[in-house]
Amino acid sequence: MTDEYVIETRGLTKVFGAKRAVDDLNLQVRRGSVFGFLGPNGAGKTTTIKMLLGLTKPTSGEARVLGLDVRERSVEVRRRVGVVAEDAPLYDHMTVAETLAFASRLAADWDDQRAAKYMDIFRLPMQARVRDLSRGMRGQLALILALTPEPELLILDEPTAGLDPVMRREFLSTVLDEVTARGGTVFMSSHVLAEVERVADTVGIINKGKLLMVKDMTELKETEKKVRVHFQVEPDPAIFQHPGIASVEGQGRRYIVTVTSDLEGVLERLRTVPHFVIDVVDLNLEEIFMQYTGGKSGVRIQ
Amino acid sequence: MYFHIDASSGIPIYRQLVGQITQAITGGLLRPGDRLPSVRELARELTINPNTVARAYLELERDGLIEAARGSGTYVTATIPALSREERLHKGRELVRAFVSEVRRLGLEPRELLGLIKHELGGEEG
């Protein structure tokens, strides 16, 4: 176990009946990164997070969080990791003030001044009962509880669900400023791709329990491209045999080629055939995500 | 100084920042000695990852456009290194490629695109 990764799983698997909710997951999350964990609904994101926190027992495989085996030391994991999940463990009958006081007695490193600073940012009504808070306010309260002990790892499961766009920005800015700027790690699942695209530096895509890809966000955008090509003559299909080419659509003289590495090499190869147009299309995260999860990419043959 | 980040573009955010700061410097909007926002300030303002801002600053520093003064912030350097013709062509090629890709997304034909460029150049070419 090195100190480089705050989350490491090997062969992590969870089977529910006939369904492999998480299937042989090998994941490494580097210290200091903001890791965007993406997948369609039901892909296995929440089950993975529950296993990381020792809330659900893996069927097989292992997981270490902050170097701790989650099967054996889940209590310590949960004490040291900040978590904001949809089903935040808040007590409905308590007021916001009572919730903070309660948390301060449980947390190892509570600091009233820090808590007050966050209360100031989100302006939650101190005397309101938790049951009367909106979904967004509950999320903010959960974030305040998670951030106040200054965790080295913050896990967010669909954290901005129920927040309006302004509050969503404030929420993410606070997370980046309070966790990332002081060297902490953020692991966030979300299906709001635009917000992940803004804040994450590493992206992992999971679908049907399987981890399909993990990449640096910049590298992802710089290497995953579509090339639209209109040849002057019908090419020999062998032209598309290149390790950087993931798939080819089209026929005759017009094609769209999906490139996942060595763009220059691919272009050089395509240029050997007389052509009218060879045009590189940059892909955003949504287009890349669709490509991996089997949806339509939106880039059309013209 | 105002930055605009389009997170859902295919251009990595750090490249957008590098491009906009470079343009501000070469265009005279930022002058030698001007102070840039700190990594943290800019990250907070734009809601982007501080590591991304740091990466952009590092690249600008390597290009000699900005300089971090110990403990007091980051400044535009007094002298802007002149780019060689080759470097300028390279930068130009990158800009055009990114631009063409964005315009293509709008579904414009090459002919229409060329028309737009000619129109923009119209004033200069007479």
Brief overview:
The complex is a heterodimer of chains A (302) and B (126). With 302 residues, chain A is an alpha/beta fold.
Number of strands of chain A: 14
What is the H-and-E element order of chain A? EEEHEEHEHHHEHEHEEHEEEHEH
Treating each run of at least 4 consecutive H or I residues as one helix, how many helices of chain B?
Answer: 5
Mean pLDDT of chain A: 90
The gross shape of chain A turns out to be elongated
Structure description:
- The complex is a heterodimer of chains A (302) and B (126).
- Chain A is built from ten helices and 14 strands.
- Chain A has 302 residues and is of the alpha/beta class.
- Chain A has a six-stranded mixed sheet with strand order 6-7-8-3-9-10, with helices on both faces.
- In chain A, helix 5 (135-147) runs parallel beside helix 6 (165-178).
- The N and C termini of chain A lie far apart (51 Å).
- The relative contact order of chain A is 0.13.
- Chain B is mainly α.
- Chain B has a single domain (13-120), classed as Arc Repressor Mutant, subunit A, CATH 1.10.10.
- Helix content of chain B is 57%, strand content 8%.
- Chain B has helices at residues 13-26, 39-46, 50-62, 85-105, 110-125; strands at residues 35-36, 66-69, 73-76.
- A three-stranded antiparallel sheet of chain B has the order 1-3-2.
- In chain B, strand 2 and strand 3 form a beta hairpin.
- The mean pLDDT of chain B is 85.
- Chain A binds chain B through residues 32-34, 169, 172-173, 176-177, 180-181, 193-194, 197-201, 217-218, 221-222, 228, 277, 279-287, 302, and chain B through 5, 7-15, 39-40, 43-44, 47-52, 55, 97-98, 100-102, 104-105, 107, 109-110.
